[in-house]
Amino acid sequence: MSNFFAGRGQDDSAKIIGACSALLFLGAANCAAAADLRIYRPDGSLQCNEGEARTLDQDKAILESLGAHIISQEKKQLPFKIIQLCGAPTGQTNTYVISQADWGKIRRGFVGPAKFGLWIFESKTAVVYKYDGTILCAEGSGIKLDEMAKGLTRVGIAIVSQKKATDGLMHIQLCGSITGSVNAYEIASSDLQKALDLGFSYLITPETARSIVGELGSKKKALAAPAARSASWPLPWPFPW
User: Fold this and answer.
1) Tell me: the pLDDT tens digits for 98-118?
2) What is the pTM of this model?
3) What stretch of H or E contains 207?
4) CB atoms within 10 A of CB 45
5) Which of 37, 39, 42, 84 has its CA nearest to residue 239?
C-alpha cells in the first residue's frame, strides 16, 4: 500500500481513500437494505363506518415505543376479498418498513408483536383456491382441476402449479353435503386481482399465518391450527390479532 501511494500527493491519496470509503458505505447500505422487511397491522377501520381507523403516525408511535426505527410507512389494502358485512374489517392496513433486527427485538419484547405481522403478500407468486363442488354420495361430482383452470387461463392468467386440497373444516357427514374439497392454483402475484375478480380466494395456510404473526418458533401461536387439520387448509381471516 505504501508503494502504491508513493510519489502521489496528499490530495490524490485523499481522493482514493474517499472513493474506497464511499464504496464501503454503499456496500453496507445495500446489506442493510437486504435485511429490511415490511410489517403491518389492520388500521381498525370497519365496514359501514363502524370503526375508527388509526393513522399511520399513531401506529408508528407504538412501534417507536417498542424500539423500532421506521424507514418508511404506507397504507396498503390486504390483497384478497373480505366478506361484505357491516362491522367486518375493511382490509385497510398500516404498513412499515423496519430492519429485521428491530422486528426480532419487538417479537422478543414483553408485549410481543403488538398485533403487528409480517407483510408477506408481495412474493412473486400467490396461491388462490375455489371450492370444487364435490358432494358426499355423488361419485364423480366436483369440478376437475384442469376444467376449473380454464377459467383462469381464459383471461390470460398463467398457472405455475395446481393441486387438490381441503378446507380442513369439519363438514356434516350427510349425502348431498359438501366435502370441503378445493382446487388450488399457484399464479403470478400480478394476476392475483384478476383471480379474485373471478371468485377465487387467496389461500392462507396455518404455516403462512404463523409467518405473518412471527410466531413460527414460539409456543404462543396466535393463529395456531388444530393438529388434525391439513397444512393446506385455507384460513378466512389472516390478521395478526
Assistant:
1) 998 898 888 777 666 788 888
2) 0.54
3) helix 206-213
4) 16
5) 42
Report d(CA 187, CA 130) in Å as an integer. 14
* Whole-angstrom distance, CA of residue 220 vs CA of residue 7: 66
Which letter, b or e, does each residue of 64-80 get, where b requires 16 or more Cβ atoms within 10 Å of its Cβ?
eebebebeebeebebeb
Contacts of residue 158, Cβ cutoff 8 Å, sequence gap at least 6: 187, 188, 191
CA neighbor of 90 nearest in space, from 201, 217, 192, 239: 239
Find all residues with CB under 8 Å of 73, minimum gap 6, and list them.
Answer: 56, 60, 94, 95, 96, 97
Query: Exposure of 192 by Cβ count < 10 A (0-12 exposed, 13-18 middle, 19+ buried)?
Result: buried
Identify the helix (H) or strand (E) that includes residue 218: none
Is 240 exposed, middle or buried (CB count within 10 Å of its CB: 0-12, 13-18, 19+)?
A: buried
CA–CA–CA angle 27, 30, 216 (5° rounding):
130
State the Cα–Cα distance between residues 69 and 99, nearest whole angstrom.
Answer: 8
Collapsed DSSP state (helix, strand, coil) of residue 202: strand
Does residue 95 contact residue 59 with C-beta atoms inside 8 Å? Answer: no
Whole-number Å distance between alpha carbons of 185 and 137: 26
> What are 17-69's pLDDT values in tens digits?
343 333 333 333 343 344 688 889 999 999 998 889 999 999 999 999 999 99
Q: How far is CA 84 from the centre of its chain?
A: 21
The DSSP call for residue 69 is P
